[in-house]
Amino acid sequence: MAEKNKDTHRYLVNMVNKIASPNFSMNPAELNKFIPENEEFIIKRVYWIDNPINEKKSGQHAHTDEDEIFIVIKGKASIAIDDDGEGVRKIELNENNIVWVPRYVWHGFDELSDDCIILALTSTNYDPERKGYIEDYKTFKESLPK
């Protein structure tokens, strides 16, 4: 099972094992090892981020109704993340890092390497109206569950 960050944040950052074989490497992400106990996570959507251009970052935001798991498949990036409204932390991510981001956690990627591929597993289907998104940091801080 994943360990909580030493500062006891709701998000988790861990590493997927790499298993070498004579002809390839296998990287098994057994999801129950990377999410907190008593959390139910049903995957409804899978997507990936690749071919970063221009600013090489995603928009920062939080979700009111969506939990996510991100796995760095290739390359490196950093994630800006905040789960308590006390300020955004920057965490460097490398190949095989896995990040659990539950709802009401501010997050976004930047500094994506040219070869970066990030796989995303989410608990909701895509909503083009983005009803469950908070895209303003001040609004995020005000909306944190008490």
Automatic annotation (TrEMBL):
It comes from the Bacteria. Signal peptide: none annotated. Residues 40-142 form the Sugar 3,4-ketoisomerase QdtA cupin domain. Pfam families: FdtA. This is Sugar 3,4-ketoisomerase QdtA cupin domain-containing protein. The lineage of its organism: Bacteria, Candidatus Woeseibacteriota.
